[in-house]
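Lab notebook: predicted structure, single chain.

Context: the supervisor wants predicted structures on file for every construct in the current expression panel, including those that have not yet been purified. This is the next one on the list. No modifications to the sequence; it matches the entry in the shared construct table.
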Amino acid sequence: FLGLFSADLFYINKIKTAFIRLLFNITFFLIIFIIIYLINPALLILAILLPLGILFITYLVIGIFYLIKRQKPIDGNGAILK
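Prediction complete. Output recorded below exactly as produced.
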């Protein structure tokens, strides 16, 4: 859930990457929202939920990938995450 807001990257002290991902997420959300809303303003709920759903599923898949990965995750200081 918090991958949408780059909380995982802020937590492991990768601030620059976190801001880049956050900016990408906001840009992606706004582009999809504007496209859907301009096509049909009555689809406001879809215009909000569709980009959030796409981002959520994307970060869910990324999270599962990192869980399956054999390497141990480390934070920005090189300490292994528990």
